[in-house]
Design goal:
The structure holds 2 protein chains of 2 kinds.
Chain A: H1 2-25, H2 40-51, H3 53-70, H4 77-96, H5 101-125, H6 132-164
Helix pairs in contact in A: 1-3, 1-6, 2-3, 2-4, 2-5, 2-6, 3-4, 4-5, 5-6
Chain B: H1 2-6, H2 8-26, H3 34-65, H4 67-91, H5 96-104, H6 107-110, E1 115-124, E2 132-135, E3 148-150, E4 156-163, E5 168-172, E6 179-184, E7 190-194, H7 197-200, E8 205-210, E9 221-224, E10 236-245, E11 252-258, E12 267-273
Antiparallel strand pairs in B: 1-2, 1-12, 2-5, 3-4, 3-12, 4-5, 6-7, 6-9, 7-8, 8-11, 9-10, 10-11
Helix pairs in contact in B: 3-4
């Protein structure tokens, strides 16, 4: 059982690295409505939904460290936000929601929207570098575009959870 | 404190947050923290491979779907070049402005004090909130934070903002963090060019702190002034496209279209050292 747990988290890490490569190498070149999709918060949200609060927070933290290393401009922001969002999503889905695609889809979009709001508010709105309407102009199309990518993100993560972990039953605790 | 010790998960989360904040402070001078440096260095070869693959796909896509548009642009540019050559011939004899334009060409011949390091772009605009490029060279090649980056044509691309062992990040000239001393080539008027969030999404930047009755025309080239010593003098930034009153109503600002085409860049040159002239 312990071996399966280790392999499961190695598989989650590899899936994240593949999506990180996809995001930074391919998706950034896809520009619709002036923005690119951002699938990395969705990866963290879906893992947090599948694995719970503490695992979601830990996964979010380490995923965020990778993002901070390869995605400019501000260090530390991804690690902190993904840790908090992973914990929050894991906690809510443990208590209130079934573990299925619809929950994962909604969690992914809520996580991305929350990430954008906090990121923009702390780094742009408060220092006066951009006006509030810019948040809507960027975040809204970004969330819409990312929604199209969520099924592609969800499938391998669900596959890892089914193959190596406790079978997601679709029931909340 | 007892609360934290009883809730080990919360203790771990607090420790993690403190750790990343420490790492962020460590990297505040422009050099990547040890963790970012390690992760970035491990990731960089993968990014380079993906970037080359993406460039190939993008080139193929461009050829297949933009062939007609490219052909039309080619014809238009041929006509434009012919007109420019004619204008140059007509005014060659006694035109001081033409002489200065000719002096802009051959940057490396004119500025022998520049020490260049070439680098390829392995990642661009990784975030929707900033305009950045990641390069394939880092501190191991003599790259340092604050160094100016130009294109092969000598146009300003941006400035090095973060450096790892084998990679570095460029904040481009349209990013909101960008600020440089500049002057209008035709009149010599000095001002500041800076990124703006609204304009960044259109691929533009602005020249601020102009007086209301400033002598600025559409098409005026804008160059770096070299004031402050951060950027070399006479690096082409772009051209003026519009003039507006700013939010205060007291001064004006000009919208600048960068001469460099950031989306098409594949290789850039980092100016590692230059002679400061003001």
């Amino acid at each position: 059982m312990r071996y399966r747990g280790i392999v499961k988290w190695i598989a989650y890490a590899l899936v994240f690295l593949v999506f990180l490569l996809l995001q930074t190498g391919v998706l950034v070149r896809v520009r619709v409505w002036g923005v690119s999709p951002n699938i990395l918060p969705a990866v963290v949200a879906i893992v947090a939904m599948l694995e719970g609060r503490e695992a979601g927070a830990a996964y979010g933290f380490f995923a965020g460290l990778w993002c901070d290393a390869v995605i400019p401009p501000v260090p530390a922001v991804h690690a902190i936000l993904f840790l908090l969002l992973g914990a929050g999503i894991g906690h809510m889905t443990e208590k209130f929601f079934r573990k299925n695609f619809l929950t994962g889809f909604l969690c992914a979009l809520v996580t991305l929207a929350a990430f954008d709001v906090v990121f923009f508010t702390v780094l742009y709105l408060i220092p006066g570098r951009a006006a509030l309407y810019n948040l809507v102009l960027v975040a809204a199309p970004e969330v819409a575009l990312t929604a199209l990518c969520v099924p592609v993100v969800y499938a391998p993560l669900w596959g890892v959870a089914r193959r190596f972990g406790n079978e997601p039953t679709g029931e909340s605790s | 404190m007892r609360f934290l010790l009883r809730h080990k998960g919360l203790l771990a989360a607090v420790a993690a947050v403190l750790l990343v904040l420490v790492l962020a402070v460590v990297s505040s001078q422009g050099y990547a923290s040890p963790v970012s440096n390690l992760l970035g260095t491990v990731f960089q070869p993968l990014q380079s491979g993906i970037a080359r693959l993406s460039d190939s796909v993008a080139s193929f896509y461009g050829y297949m779907y933009e062939h007609d548009a490219l052909k039309e642009e080619n014809e238009r540019l041929k006509v434009q070049i012919a007109k420019m050559e004619e204008a140059a011939r007509l005014s060659e004899a006694s035109n001081d402005e033409n002489e200065r334009f000719r002096q802009l060409l051959g940057l490396s011949e004119r500025r022998r004090d520049f020490v260049f390091e070439s680098a390829t772009i392995i990642e661009r605009d990784a975030s929707n909130w900033a305009s950045t490029l990641t390069l394939s060279r880092g501190s191991g090649n003599g790259i340092a934070p604050g160094q100016c980056v130009i294109s092969e044509a000598g146009y300003l691309v941006g400035v090095i903002s973060e450096v790892g062992a084998t990679w570095s990040t460029v904040t481009t000239l349209i990013d909101t963090d960008m600020e440089a001393g500049a002057f209008i080539f035709r009149t010599g008027l000095s001002a500041v060019v800076e990124g703006n969030f609204d304009l960044m999404r259109q691929g533009l930047l602005r020249m601020s702190y102009l007086s209301k009755d400033v002598d600025v025309k559409n098409g005026d080239p804008v160059l770096t002034s070299g004031i402050g010593g951060k950027y070399p003098r006479d690096i082409v930034i772009g051209t003026v496209t519009d003039l507006y009153m700013d939010e205060t109503g007291i001064s004006a600002y000009a919208v600048i279209r960068p001469s460099v085409e950031l989306e098409k860049l594949k290789q850039v040159f980092v100016i590692k050292s230059f002679d400061i002239s003001e």
